[in-house]
Amino acid sequence: MSQPPKISRRDLLKSGGSAVTLTIASGVTLMAFGGSEVQGAADAGKRWGLLIDVNKCAKDCTACITACQDENGWKGHGNRETDAQWIRKVTLKNKATGHETAMPVMCQHCEKPPCVDVCPTGASFKRKDGIVLVDKHICIGCRYCMMACPFKARSFVHEPTNNQSVNAPRGQGTVESCTLCVHRVDKGQIPACVEACDATGNGAMIFGDLKDPESEISKRLAEFPSVALRGDLELNPGVRYAEL
Length: 244
What we know:
Elements: H1 9-16, E1 23-25, E2 28-29, H2 35-40, E3 48-53, H3 63-72, E4 87-93, E5 100-106, H4 114-118, E6 124-126, E7 132-134, H5 144-148, E8 155-156, E9 175-176, H6 182-185, H7 192-200, E10 205-209, H8 216-223, E11 226-227, E12 239-242
Parallel strand pairs: 3-12
Antiparallel strand pairs: 1-2, 3-10, 4-5, 6-7, 8-9, 11-12
Helix pairs in contact: 3-7
């Protein structure tokens, strides 16, 4: 009698990742970032991106970080601050002049994301509209993507998560990063960080469709110079920086 073929854990995760919903808290499911569900909401005719004017980014302002924390629930509620790097402020100093520049850094949502290239299960994926996400249901926590990311934009969830936000399910033993607030984008809204920056009056962040020549972000990029972080890698990130 022939034996049934053995199915590896990786094969099981890959085949079942889009069919099984795992409830991790009241109203929160890991399926919220399942590849097929989120891909279905993406529009291939768009490519979402951010333009950040560092001259308008106040050094001591952390409104974008606080907004991201509140919207996605990655700080507080029993979660350690050190484990999350969804968005952070970094300071660049010109050694010759001493001039310092502060700016937010998050997942750069690359056109050619290294994190996707190295992921063994397909948990790291890029939507048709350019947003790079992690399908928590098939992430095995190998952290290859963290090593591959040149921007240190990904974090590993070491501890159990409590009182999570329904906007961004988290799971112990998985990797996470900025989602560009995909849950808001799919509703026609802007990311929480951009909304918070606008509320401060700084207006340092512009979100929009990079494929639409009439969008504000495209017009700004066409009119003023901007740079990509680690442009030498030719990843064509969706996040650009002006006045850097």
